[in-house]
């Protein structure tokens, strides 16, 4: 029941038509990412996800982690999976070549890591920590630290974690109290406790590199007095060999609703005289460096949303095609997928998954463009877009992903509530994705306050203009004119809500903050709807090209390549081998499926936009409510 | 952290102003339910819920149930709770007086049982089974069976369950295969397996009465061949004493995501020659009798929705008032409840809870009116309303309740995902409420097909006319004219969607079925919004009366009773003791709170109605989607 296969078809479609993977391969420094290599990597990743990671996902949930004396014991199979993951080169896929990685673009990274997260989120949280830490050290550390640590981190010899949270400092890192004292040798001694540290300890690797937020006794108050320290589990000699155990240890593990395979540790520093730590970058710039890690992590979590939804959907679809109950169109013994309401649920799930993926892959490409595009203007625009939409990607994709995991349980009915089928795990695991690396409320506040108000909505208006241009193009496609109209109305609502934020941002900040989460939902729906509309246009273009090629073939004028080539020429279909039996028919079927998802989107999700815009505009009611509204 | 106190203030407000509890007490046969008695019963129930049931809720979740050989072992404390529950007369509260119950009205039953469900859902599922079984036996059993069983069931001496589901027969009971063979003595022998049987076995009572669906070998196919059998765990002698153990036993328990304290059993019948069963009522009418139980159960589950939401809300509110994080209006150290987004979440939860409760208590009163109203027309109308809205009550309240439990976790942030705080339990427990006793999809199908199409929308139109009359009254209250306009638009959308169903019901049943769940959400929002609007009118009336009494007092013309009496005269405020210190001020504060909830409703939930109506109207897209839309 709980097997996994990557949705390669959707991945390719989105990479081809929404990302333009060939345009990414054309960027200087991204030459390796030529489409055929990308697709063969995806196929290999699928095998690894399905063959190595997925089979230990449920057992990991059942076994969980435990603290055995000082040792954190992770589930059976984790060690083998880690070793194979590293040996297969998957850890280094997107990491810098100068430290031993392969430096492949983010646009490839996104579908590959989506597979890992689908197959086994609890496991994959470990390698994910390597990505953010590598980025932060690359940005902030001095050359000696980079040379000593990064090759061993990128190779997977040593693992990483991110040690931020303390009991009184969750969303508010300004409240961090962990104390760092300067030692005579230029290093520091750290004292204090961190909580909620994913993979804070384990024995999967020879060493663990903790990046820890702490403050010096004389540091300024608040976030401007927080520094970032590198604390190795085992001290590292100058030649990279390992020395004594450092004064840091896991003192307890959390009992959580999900991700049981990921040890969530309370870590004690300095119980025996002080944990040896090394300053990363400059003093008191810790929050800035932390955000490098955090942004990397948030982008990853946006993939958690789509990944768990995909896994849960695959289970629900399989169940709906195996389970028989009641009569379907008057006939007994046919699977429940044929019941209109079950089909509606399946379409609801798949449409949302498609939309999340269509939203996040092109955003991954923005990273590549920001880093590699030869035009400084184009690079800067991509950077602006990713900065603006990061909280939407994280917030909306995880909110939406949770809804899909919830739908999957509903398709199973009573069998969804019992644990044996496994679908409940994705629902439980996924619940944390709206919390960790910043709750949806924190994302929404970031979006509204830091990303929109601070620049008076400039980037958002730039994006809106781009969406409007696509609306105009869409309106020219006769079959999709209805979608164009609906999307235009959605964009109007987005602008109306943005105007409300800008008009009230300085005079009534509390109302604007109360409007933030509804605004995030609105922004997510509009941006995802934009991508769905783009997909529909590509699909419609492919079908039109195929039809005209078919018509030409019928009159004896067709080229040899048939449907696929014709569709390819229109820039809007799969690159199935020309002339492969049935390839044309299969393509057309797939493309019609994409159009059906777009129809479902504009029937079900696009109509929700107006309500969110109305809620944003009425947000003053929150501030006006007396305390007596909250208790009876 | 996880204590419980009943929301007595809200309960009273809704009973006073939306139910009209005095009008229920005026019904013949309901005389005992005079308001002061009702409120003193609620206070006693609160003590029992808070003192006996709530304290063993979390421990029950942690311990769960287990099968020890043939014995089903329930959590620690269950036995004492059951004994006290029965001894306190709580089981018999609403049960017929002729069998030893107290026969109190459903309008009282609803708030009392809401408390049990809030305090401990897993435990309360057991006494809840008694209610449905009593009703079914009362309707269907012969006098001898009633005389032998019902007094012992109503007294709590024996427990009950409802044995319907089989592996191939979940939502579709027509597929029941359990075999019943006639024996020479007029009894039957049952053979087969039932699954998902809540409290299928345990040792809390001396005996357990199973009501079991089964079919005779020569019975007609489908639901018209299913009969209902009474199968006692221990055979019962003519004098009510217990005989031999019957041939029925629990063979396994499910491992579930929640309600761990409720044993969900797989039951084997007839392994040793046949379980002795007795026909209830007439042969082949089992589904009809089952629906008596099922309707009782569904109404109870509609309370599960509000009850778990209330419990989770109380935890979230307490946490938000204790937890400090970040600056609130520039000041550190103040609780997070002051953050606009957290306040928004709390208002979102409380508004939904208020709306669910305001929807369900007046529906409970419909039961009383249907049974006791001296006017046959009024009684029949109440019966029509409860029949029409039962699927909405069950479906919408559980959907909405789940959302509130989800919000509660979000308020806790990371502490919501770890199990120690206890808020995750309500989220896990609550997930099943949208599944058992008919999924939301089943409810929606019932609503659309059996309740609306079958009578061409007659009762719905009758209800809509009633709502429109309230809209007109609301429009006359200057402060609430905006709500009146919004509610009127919502009702328009409900009618538009209903017209769509009626127009397509026979020509395109698949599209109408695909529209059913969106329609159920729409109907729930409109009906709940109607009740919220009624509450706002009562609150506004109370405030206006208090203000004019205050003005009169200031000019020396006030009567002795002050604010409370003035408000009472307007039929729209709490009956606080006249002249009690601060009572007037407290009342006004409460009433302003109700108005704030209404404002939040019309800012946030009412605007969602149009989207659902648009979705209903666009439901043909489900049937049109090719299979290729469902897989990549």
TrEMBL record, chains A, B:
Protein family (similarity comment): Belongs to the acyl-CoA dehydrogenase family.
Gene Ontology MF annotations: flavin adenine dinucleotide binding; oxidoreductase activity, acting on the CH-CH group of donors
Acyl-CoA dehydrogenase/oxidase N-terminal domain residues: 42-157
Domain Acetyl-CoA dehydrogenase-like C-terminal: residue ranges: 464-619
Job of this protein: Involved in the assimilation of dimethylsulphoniopropionate (DMSP), an important compound in the fixation of carbon in marine phytoplankton, by mediating the conversion of 3-(methylthio)propanoyl-CoA (MMPA-CoA) to 3-(methylthio)acryloyl-CoA (MTA-CoA).
Organism of origin: Rugamonas brunnea
Protein name stated in the entry: 3-methylmercaptopropionyl-CoA dehydrogenase
Keywords tagged on the record: FAD, Flavoprotein, Oxidoreductase
Ranges for domain Acyl-CoA oxidase/dehydrogenase middle: 162-268
InterPro entries for the chain: Acyl-CoA_dh-like_C_dom, Acyl-CoA_Oxase/DH_mid-dom, Acyl-CoA_Oxase/DH_mid-dom_sf, AcylCo_DH-like_C, AcylCo_DH/oxidase_C, AcylCoA_DH/ox_N, AcylCoA_DH/ox_N_sf, AcylCoA_DH/oxidase_NM_dom_sf
Domain Acyl-CoA dehydrogenase/oxidase C-terminal: 284-448
Cited Pfam families: Acyl-CoA_dh_1 (PF00441), Acyl-CoA_dh_C (PF12806), Acyl-CoA_dh_M (PF02770), Acyl-CoA_dh_N (PF02771)
PANTHER family in UniProt: ACYL-COA DEHYDROGENASE, BROAD-SPECIFICITY LINEAR ACYL-COA DEHYDROGENASE FADE5
Class in the EC hierarchy, top level: oxidoreductase
Annotated catalysed reactions: 3-(methylsulfanyl)propanoyl-CoA + oxidized [electron-transfer flavoprotein] + H(+) = 3-(methylsulfanyl)acryloyl-CoA + reduced [electron-transfer flavoprotein]
EC number, UniProt record: 1.3.99.41
Transmembrane segments: none
Keyword Flavoprotein: yes
Cofactor: FAD
Keyword RNA-binding annotated: no
